[in-house]
Amino acid sequence: MLLLVLEWANARTFGPLETPARFLAAFFQSVTPRSGGFATVDIEAMTSASLFLLIALMFVGANSGSTGGGIKTSTLAILVGSAWNMVRGRGDLIVFGRRVEPENLVRAGTVTTLYTLLVAAACFALLATNPNLGFTHLLFETVSAAATVGLSMNTTHLINDPGLVILSVLMYLGRIGPLTFATSFSLRGGQGRGVQYPPERDILVG
C-alpha cells in the first residue's frame, strides 16, 4: 500500500497504468525485493521514498528457512519484540504465549549487526572506488547484492572492475550468510570456556 501511494502519480512508473494494473504492479514490486529480483517498472524512475522502502525490504529479506537473503523476517520480529519488551519493562520476551530464549535474542542481534557492518563496509568501498556514481545508486546495489536479490537502478554496468569484485564477494557472503561465515572461523573449546566472569553493571546504553 505504501508503494502504491508513493508511485500512484509517478508518470514514469505507475502513472501510465490503469488502476487495476497499478495495484498489481505495487503488489509485485513489493514482493520481489525479498528475493525475486524481477521488475515490471523502471526502478531508477521511482521516488526516493519508494527506493528507501525497497532497500528496507531487501535488507529484511525473506522468511527463515527460505532461499532468500536478508536478515530474515523472524530476526526482525525478535528485535522489534525485544525492544517493545524493554519499553514495557518486561523481563522475558513472550510472543504468542511462548517465551523466546535469550540465545535467540543474541543470535538475532548478532545476525543484524554483522549484516549491517557488511553492507556498510561494502557500500563504503563502492563509494571509494566509484566516486562518480551517486550514493543512493550504490547503496541500492550493495543491499541488492548482499540480499541476493538482483534488482538494480541501471547502475551495475557503470561500476568499475574493483566495484564488481566487491559486489561478487558481497553476493557470496550474502548467500552463505554473515553469521555462518563468521562462525566458521570461530575457535571452539578455546580459552575461557567454562569460566564464569563477574557481571559488569555500570555500562551506560542509550
Describe this structure in words.
With 206 residues, the protein is an all-alpha fold. It has a domain of 137 residues. The chain is 53% helix and 3% strand. It is built from eight helices and two strands. It is globular. Its main location: membrane. It is found in: Cell membrane. Pfam families: TrkH. It is a multi-pass membrane protein.
How would you summarize this macromolecular structure in one to three sentences?
It is found in: Cell membrane. This protein is an all-alpha fold and 206 residues long.
Topology:
Elements (H helix, E strand, L loop, with lengths): L1 H6 L11 H13 L16 H13 L12 H15 L5 E3 L2 E3 L1 H28 L5 H12 L14 H16 L1 H6 L23
Antiparallel strand pairs: 1-2
* Average pLDDT score: 89
Quickly count the helices: 8
Structural class: mainly alpha
What letter string, H or E per element, gives the SSE order?
Answer: HHHHEEHHHH
- The neighbouring-strand order within the major sheet is 1-2
Tell the overall outline.
globular
Low-confidence stretches: none
Main sheet attributes: strand count, strand direction, barrel closure: 2 strands, antiparallel
> Beta-sheet strand percentage?
under 5%
How much is the radius of gyration in Å? 20 Å
Helix content: 40-55%
For the secondary structure, the number of strands is: 2
Give the N-terminus to C-terminus distance in angstroms.
33 Å
Keywords: Cell membrane, Ion transport, Membrane, Transmembrane, Transmembrane helix, Transport
Subcellular location: Cell membrane
Membrane topology: Multi-pass membrane protein
Pfam family, one: TrkH
